[in-house]
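Q: Given only this backbone (280 positions), what sequence would you predict?
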């Protein structure tokens, strides 16, 4: 497929579209119907000047090492691989899931075996649903995202300091969106995040209470910058009400940010308030 630069990007020149090819597979073990495991392999690169070829389409089936001669990936490509699982216990309303991803190509087999968590990100989640009564459904969910794991050094490839996901050694290229939607996690790119949320669904709508914590630029100290990590806490209250063929959503979310704008000691209180009406 083709992925393109968002219309809202300030960059108006250079590479604005890229080619991507991906392969995803899932497996449900016999006798364990509640468990799903799988993997994903994706390769992104410049849009081929000669047009699409079968070789480009089949790139996910090829190796996960770089070209073996330089520290830069083959043909300015970006590699991505992940493994994931989901355990859903339907009678009990419990769901547990997780995914571990590895960015970019490995330098060689030894490097891959020695540091398999090089430039990795982790997602762990839990959800529980139950019925307080016949007309209401309650859902509790918790999710953790960590893009700041241990082995990010690239000493054998010319880099000796950690870098966040989506950098791909050559910088974050243009064209990594699909119709303006970012192909990635802003939280993983920044550092790490945690969200916990309780939602009560009723025939008239839903009520939600949530707590978010996002740590941004946690890798800054290791790359020699003077920026201080910013930590943002938010408490969200949201109510959705159905009114005939329309619905009304009210959101109030006070925030408290430590080291705002990456400035040490700059703590800021904030408030996000939203009123949305949809329908006629």
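A: Predicted residues:
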């Amino acid at each position: 497929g083709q992925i393109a630069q968002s219309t809202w990007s300030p960059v108006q020149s250079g590479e604005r579209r890229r080619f991507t090819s991906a392969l995803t597979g899932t497996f449900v073990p016999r006798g364990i119907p509640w468990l799903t495991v799988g993997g994903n392999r994706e390769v992104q690169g410049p849009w081929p000047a000669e047009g699409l070829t079968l070789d480009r389409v089949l790139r996910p089936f090829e190796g996960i090492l770089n070209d073996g001669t330089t520290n830069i990936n083959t043909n300015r490509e970006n590699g991505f691989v992940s493994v994931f699982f989901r355990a859903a216990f339907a009678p009990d309303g419990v769901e547990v899931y997780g995914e571990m991803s590895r960015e970019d190509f490995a330098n060689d087999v030894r490097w891959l075996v020695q540091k398999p968590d090089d430039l990795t990100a982790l997602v762990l989640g839990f959800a529980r649903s139950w019925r307080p009564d016949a007309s209401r459904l309650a859902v509790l969910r918790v999710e953790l995202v960590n893009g700041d794991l241990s082995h990010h050094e690239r000493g054998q490839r010319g880099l000796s300091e950690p870098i966040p996901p989506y950098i791909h050694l050559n910088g974050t290229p243009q064209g990594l969106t699909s119709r303006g939607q970012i192909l990635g996690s802003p939280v993983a790119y920044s550092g790490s995040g945690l969200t916990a949320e309780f939602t009560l669904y009723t025939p008239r709508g839903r009520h939600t209470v949530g707590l978010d914590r996002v740590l941004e630029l946690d890798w800054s100290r290791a790359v020699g910058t003077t920026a201080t990590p910013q930590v943002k806490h938010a408490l969200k209250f949201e109510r959705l009400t159905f009114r005939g063929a329309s619905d009304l959503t009210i959101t109030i979310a006070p925030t408290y940010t430590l080291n705002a704008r990456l400035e040490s000691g700059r703590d800021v209180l904030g408030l996000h308030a939203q009123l949305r009406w949809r329908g006629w």
